[in-house]
Amino acid sequence: MRELYVVTHxxxxxxxxxxxxxxxxxxxxxxxxxxxxxxxxxLAGRLSEAGVVDVFSSDLxxxxxxxxxxxxxxxxxxxxxPDLREKSYGEAGGRPQAWLDERFVPPPAVGERMRxxxxxxxxxxxxxxxxxxxxxxxxILRSEAVxxxxxxHGGTATFVLAAWIGMPVDAAGSVGCRFTPGGITVxxxxxxxxxxxxxxxDDVDHxx
Length: 208
Known about the structure:
Layout: E1 2-8, H1 13-17, H2 30-47, E2 53-57, H3 61-74, E3 78-80, H4 97-103, H5 126-140, E4 147-152, H6 154-164, E5 184-189, E6 196-203
Parallel strand pairs: 1-4, 2-3, 2-4
Antiparallel strand pairs: 1-5, 5-6
């Protein structure tokens, strides 16, 4: 059976500083780095006899550092993919969260949600985020490794799951999952029916 472990990077400096993340290249905090070690230990325990394991990661520093800690523990290299980045918030990236909140235009309840302009110059639409995330997932699934780890961000992880279950990108305008920094989501495709399961969503037991 194919298994994917989707890891959302743990606590980063923009979290504690109250800044907008997105493409702002924040680093892990000391607490985040310690949580990355716990994530690595948890996955090493599950994958100790798994054979070949691939590790894919967003190239942003907070995700990359997490993936490198995982890769060292698993004894494998890391494939960096900028399409696994968090949504770009354009001019808001790295600014106080309050700056974004004052200017943000929420999407309508009905109608066009994927290409909605949120009112922030340079920001990606949900459509742009979804399209590149789907492309990254399709590349990952071309790997022959049966076990894969994907290190990404909370906003992007929603579309990783949507791509995994085969949701058409045009239908993903209202999908949303809440992810905890440092959480692990387990996905599995069985060999008989080839169903794609979400086995466990946002597991944080290893952080306690």
